[in-house]
Structures are given as C-alpha cells and as structure tokens.
C-alpha cells in the first residue's frame, strides 16, 4: 500500500480520565511547562508545534505534546500541513480546580 502523505490524527484524553498523578507528572517537566505557559498566552488554534521556543528537537517536542495530550492538557488538530494546538483550560480546570493557575503562576 502506498503512503498517502497524511499523518494520523492525534489521540486525545479527556481531563476527566486523567489522574492527578498523571497531570502533575506532565506539568512537572520544564519543557512541557513552557509549552503550557506559551499556549495559555495564545489564542486557541494559533500556535503550530514548531512555533514554541523550547530547546528540544522535533522528535522530543512530539513526545512532549503526546504527554500533554495524554494528560488532558492540550488538544491538537491538523490544518493542512500544520498541526495547531490549544490549551484545554476550561476542561482541565473543571477536573483539577486551581492546578493550572498554580502552574501558570510559576510559584
């Protein structure tokens, strides 16, 4: 079977299906913290995966987004050749009230 050039749509975990331990583990990594903070300061669906200022390569960045999706923090969709992101702030806040605000404050 010939490759079509299309990548599979990313799988997402709803925050209701995430444990607090998994959420904390995802947020504890400094690179993922940067991604979440930058998404928090951006409008939904405006940031492509390559637009973040983090000191990791493409494969590592893909892994970090996979972890954030699995923790219910980030939703991604493909728009043409670009993959865009949004922070699932409202959904995550409903599941873990106040946790995201603590992370975003950086205390």
From TrEMBL:
InterPro entries: ArsR-like_HTH, HTH_ArsR_DNA-bd_dom, WH-like_DNA-bd_sf, WH_DNA-bd_sf. Residues 12-107 form the HTH arsR-type domain. One of its GO terms (molecular function) is DNA-binding transcription factor activity. This is Transcriptional regulator. It comes from Streptomyces bauhiniae.
């Amino acid at each position: 079977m010939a490759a079509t050039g299309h990548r599979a749509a990313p799988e997402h975990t709803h925050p209701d299906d995430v444990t607090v331990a998994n959420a904390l583990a995802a947020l504890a990594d400094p690179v993922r913290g940067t991604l979440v903070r930058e998404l928090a300061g951006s409008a939904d669906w405006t940031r492509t995966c390559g637009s973040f200022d983090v000191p990791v390569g493409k494969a590592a960045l893909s892994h970090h987004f996979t972890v954030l999706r699995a923790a219910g923090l980030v939703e991604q969709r493909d728009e043409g050749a670009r993959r865009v992101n949004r922070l699932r702030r409202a959904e995550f806040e409903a599941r873990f009230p106040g946790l995201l605000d603590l992370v975003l404050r950086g205390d």
